[in-house]
User: Which sequence fits this backbone?
């Protein structure tokens, strides 16, 4: 039993794993052997969904009201109660956590994964399809100070020798102003969207998200905007209605001012300023995954991260 418990907490290496082939556009700067081993593991993780059992326990205790002889004399309840609830759920997981050491090139390996899987978008699982815009893009979320590094790495590894355009369409979203100019179609047709975690704290973005989830953001102060969770169920429902009958939902290309009537969008794919939670992504990558623990105290923002959906999910740390 002791050996089984010890084995359960071991972090396994991939020294014996088979190397993947070089990504198709990594010509001038190929991945190293250890990176190819990691790439091969990532490819297998996306191809073979592993069953993941999640166990939970909840215990509720009431010690009773009486804590002294006087309490007992008054007839106070000294007999409390205790109940324990246990459950198990099973999930099919595509993805994982890439925990290579510093300097092993996790960013380059992830770019290699995207390059080697271009076009493998996969269908939106039933019955979720009608509730999302399907994007073939990889959504990369990173700290604001690392966005330029990601862009530089894409150029470094994928730039053609003749100086032509990158083989992947990479769209950076550094602020809310960037996503305000994008349409649903442009996001769906992109290969990579690189976004800062800071976007989820933007009052402009929060207003748009709340609007799409049926909450009037005009009634909220800026502090309340950052603390109010979006109604994800309503967001999904309204997105479905917008896709089938956009005039019924009456969304515009931007947030309306007080008393202003905006032109209603009639073509769903032409909608400007959608929110990331409305898309089903090919994969989602959380860079500096260990830092997300600090966001758990920011309930609304952490709720948004949990509401992002895609075929595969990766954490880099």
Assistant:
């Amino acid at each position: 039993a002791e050996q089984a418990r010890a084995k359960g907490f071991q972090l396994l290496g991939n020294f014996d794993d088979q190397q993947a082939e070089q990504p198709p556009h990594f010509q001038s700067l190929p991945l190293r052997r250890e990176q190819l081993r990691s790439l091969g593991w990532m490819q297998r993780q996306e191809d073979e969904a592993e069953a993941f059992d999640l166990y939970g326990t909840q215990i509720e205790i009431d010690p009773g009201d009486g804590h002294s002889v006087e309490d007992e004399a008054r007839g106070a309840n000294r007999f409390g109660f205790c109940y324990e609830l246990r459950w198990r759920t099973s999930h099919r997981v595509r993805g994982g956590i890439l925990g290579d050491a510093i300097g092993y090139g996790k960013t380059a390996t992830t770019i290699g994964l995207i390059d080697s899987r271009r076009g493998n978008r996969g269908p939106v699982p039933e019955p979720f399809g009608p509730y999302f815009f399907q994007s073939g893009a990889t959504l990369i979320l990173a700290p604001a100070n690392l966005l330029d590094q990601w862009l530089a790495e894409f150029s470094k590894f994928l730039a053609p020798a003749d100086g032509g355009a990158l083989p992947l369409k990479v769209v950076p979203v550094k602020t809310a102003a960037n996503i305000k100019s994008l349409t649903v179609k442009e996001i769906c047709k992109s290969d990579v969207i690189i976004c800062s975690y800071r976007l989820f704290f933007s009052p402009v973005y929060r207003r748009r998200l709340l609007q799409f989830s049926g909450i009037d953001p005009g009634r909220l102060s800026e502090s309340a905007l950052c603390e109010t969770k979006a109604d994800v169920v309503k967001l999904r429902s309204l997105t479905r209605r917008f896709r089938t009958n956009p005039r019924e939902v009456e969304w515009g290309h931007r947030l309306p001012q007080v008393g202003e009537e905006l032109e209603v969008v009639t073509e769903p794919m032409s909608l400007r300023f959608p929110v990331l939670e409305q898309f089903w992504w090919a994969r989602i990558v959380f860079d500096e995954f260990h830092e997300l623990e600090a966001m758990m105290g920011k309930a609304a923002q952490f709720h948004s991260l949990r509401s992002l959906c895609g075929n595969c999910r990766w954490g880099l740390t």
